[in-house]
Design a protein that fits this description.
The chain has 263 residues and is α/β, with parallel strands linked by helices. It has seven helices and 16 strands.
Length: 263
């Protein structure tokens, strides 16, 4: 039986629906134990030591400390553990955080953009998607099996269609990455137009503008020295409205990720 930690020590409970939706995905996986890391504990070596994998959604308006970043990185690369990183539209900047400080040494960067279906290209779409829960397909980027690279990978087990909501794209440079999910070729990639930034570089206000229609990476997975990493541009993959309404295999993806990270 594996022990998997879910980090909630960096205000992730503030993401509306995040923890309840992830908890629902954990319940059927009775072969494993899921435990939360709550506020006040932090991600130090002693806290991480008992666990086999960590689910880490981007912090909400707070930053990971440098010592936490170093501890998590060593825990993955030196202790051979697994980590599942989840970002959101616009990546770190709009959400006043620094998940990329942890992701970059693994050869992954969450971009400051927004990926939408091909016909959702306006500033109004960029703002409306924030509140979308997936009950309709208006803002859901659907990816069928053709968008999965290296289809024989364990993460693709029983996957036919995935749905991504409020997602950013990923830049990947890690040669050990074995699997990735790309959006359709006509996806709308929106970027901030004339963002307003404060002294720390955070985007305080976003006016969205279409950058291009193109295929971008939404999820990637691979080795991280002796450990493993999975990174996704959105934490909204398991909202109940999305799962019920869109006939996607996101729940199966969660089970696949957990099983692969602890192997």
């Amino acid at each position: 039986m594996a022990r998997i930690a879910i980090d909630l020590s960096h205000e992730q409970r503030e993401w509306y629906g995040y923890y309840p939706s992830v908890l629902q995905q954990c319940k059927p996986l009775t072969a494993h134990t899921f435990e939360t890391i709550e506020k006040g504990r932090g991600l130090d070596a002693a806290t991480l030591a008992p666990y086999d994998a960590l689910i880490l959604a981007l912090p909400c308006n707070v930053e990971l400390r440098e010592d936490e970043i170093n501890a998590v990185r060593a825990w993955v690369t030196e202790e051979g553990k697994g980590i599942f990183l989840l970002s959101s539209y616009s990546g770190d900047a709009h959400h006043r955080t620094n998940l990329n400080a942890l992701a970059r040494p693994f050869g992954i960067r969450f971009n400051e953009d927004l990926v939408l279906p091909h016909d959702r290209t306006t500033d109004n779409d960029g703002h409306a998607q924030v509140y979308d829960r997936g009950a309709s397909d208006r803002y859901t980027v659907r990816v069928d099996a053709a968008g999965l690279s290296f289809g024989a990978h364990p993460l693709s087990h029983k996957i036919q269609t995935l749905g991504f909501l409020s997602t950013c794209s990923l830049n990947v440079s890690n040669p050990q990455l074995q699997f990735w999910v790309s959006s359709p070729a006509d996806s709308a990639a929106l970027e901030p137009a004339s963002p307003i930034r404060n002294s720390k570089g955070w985007i305080m206000k976003i006016n969205w503008a279409l950058s291009a229609h193109k295929s971008v990476i939404l999820l990637a997975a691979g080795k991280a020295d002796s450990g493993k990493i999975v990174a996704c541009g959105s934490w909204k993959l398991w909202l109940p409205e999305l799962l019920v309404s869109q006939s996607v295999d996101n729940a199966q993806l969660f089970a696949n990720v957990v099983d692969w990270l602890i192997q």
